[in-house]
Design goal:
globular; 30% helix; CO_DH_flav_C; oxidoreductase; FAD-bd_PCMH-like_sf; binds iron/sulfur cluster; 21% strand; CO_DH_flav_C_dom_sf; five-stranded antiparallel beta sheet; 330 residues; oxidoreductase activity; binds flavin-adenine dinucleotide; alpha+beta
Length: 330
């Protein structure tokens, strides 16, 4: 591992100043992703700014029933918070579906959103990879891509974003707050991750040196009836092959409001807006749920070895929405 300078920040402006404009410096949250990548040489920061002592570890009410979640809140504390469990249950389920208890005790909200892809070529520094070494190529397109993207990818990168938490936050229109030397800013999660295009190494719209300070969940009554379902190779301690965060408000058998986001299918958590449009005002039946999934997945461009993901996602959408509709009818 390359030698690095370690600093611990006590306040937000101090953290931003310590990082400065140095492209070789990194913030350290729980370290559960960054430190692993440093050990393998994927990340080689010259300076680490530890943000865990910052006063960003609280979850507070925001607006009319929304929540403001500090960037250093741990995954465990987020999942256990009564306001999250009651008002955004899919978020609790998504967080608990990720990693392990020990990792969730360390991992932070900011770090979870910025964790890097698990593509095996990205994490192996002996291989080419456009995301790690721009212009070197993408061996996954013709190589190992069973778990790679079916939506929104490009020939330059077909990796997926690994976060479970991010899928639920995307379904609920979360907004990311950040701080830079020029002052604070905000980005809706929908605009936070950049399209892949020919610059897969540029992952987010955060300005250089930005410190994530928190995430705001706007009030969303529909989220109270929500669910996260994740398919993975093992029952625990495994990343998603596909996942769905869904929320449904049904009245008189008709969909009044719906939120749907898909995980492990694209370089970002994927908001299923085409599916939402099909469903709003439609009968809450399996037939319409399938039509909605088809509308979203019409844009899928699977690779030779990951076509199964399209079928998987269709089935997941139908099962999650059917369960929510049944619950609403009780
Ligand atoms: C074995 C294993 C299994 C896992 N399984 C899952 C899973 O199933 N689902 C899932 O979603 N995740 C999973 N994870 C990933 C885990 O959730 C992430 O490693 C974790 O959320 C990252 O949070 P962290 O605070 O440790 O981030 P760090 O490792 O500290 O940082 C990650 C990145 O974020 C940056 N960063 C951190 N905080 C900030 C901030 N406030 N502002 C700006 N930049 C910041 C860092 O510079 C770094 O680039 C798994 C991890 C492991 C090791
Ligand atoms: S899919 Fe993306 S991360 Fe994986 S090898 Fe290709 S460029 Fe790299």
């Amino acid at each position: 591992m390359r030698e690095f300078d370690y600093r611990r920040a006590d306040d937000v402006s101090g953290a931003v100043a310590l990082l400065g404009a140095d492209p070789d410096a990194r913030y350290l949250g729980g370290g559960t992703n960054l430190v692993d990548l440093m050990k393998t040489g994927v990340e080689r920061p010259a300076r680490i700014v530890d943000v865990r002592a910052l006063p960003l570890d609280r979850i507070e009410p925001a607006g009319d029933g929304g929540l403001r979640i500090g960037a250093t809140v741990t995954n465990s504390d987020l999942a256990a918070h009564p306001g999250v469990r009651d008002r955004y249950p899919a978020l609790t389920q998504a967080v608990l579906a990720g990693a392990s208890g020990q990792l969730r005790n360390m991992a932070t909200v900011g770090g979870n959103l910025l964790q890097r892809t698990r593509c095996g070529y990205f994490t192996d520094v002996t291989k080419p990879c456009n995301k790690r070494a721009p212009g070197s190529g993408c061996p996954a397109v013709e190589g190992e891509h069973r778990n790679h993207a079916v939506l929104g990818a490009s020939e330059h990168c077909v990796a997926v974003h690994p976060s479970d938490m991010g899928v639920a936050l995307t379904a609920f229109d979360a907004v990311v707050s950040y701080e830079t030397a020029d002052g604070p800013g905000e980005l809706p999660l929908a605009d936070f991750y950049l399209p892949v295009g020919d610059t897969p190494h540029r992952e987010t719209a955060l300005p250089p040196g930005a410190l994530i300070t928190g995430v705001t969940l706007p009030p969303a009554p529909v989220a109270a009836r929500s669910r996260y379902r994740k398919v993975r190779e093992r029952a625990s301690y495994a990343f998603a092959i596909g996942s769905v965060a869904g929320a449904l408000d049904v009245s008189g058998g008709v969909v009044r409001d719906v939120r749907l986001a898909l995980g492990a299918v694209a370089s970002r958590p994927w908001r299923a807006r085409a599916a939402e449009r099909v469903l709003t005002g439609a009968p809450a039946t399996a037939e319409y749920f399938a039509a909605a999934a088809d509308a979203e997945l019409a844009a899928a461009r699977p690779l030779p070895d990951n076509g199964h993901k399209v079928t998987l996602m269709r089935n997941l959408v139908v099962s999650v929405l059917s369960e929510l509709a049944e619950e609403a009818a009780r």
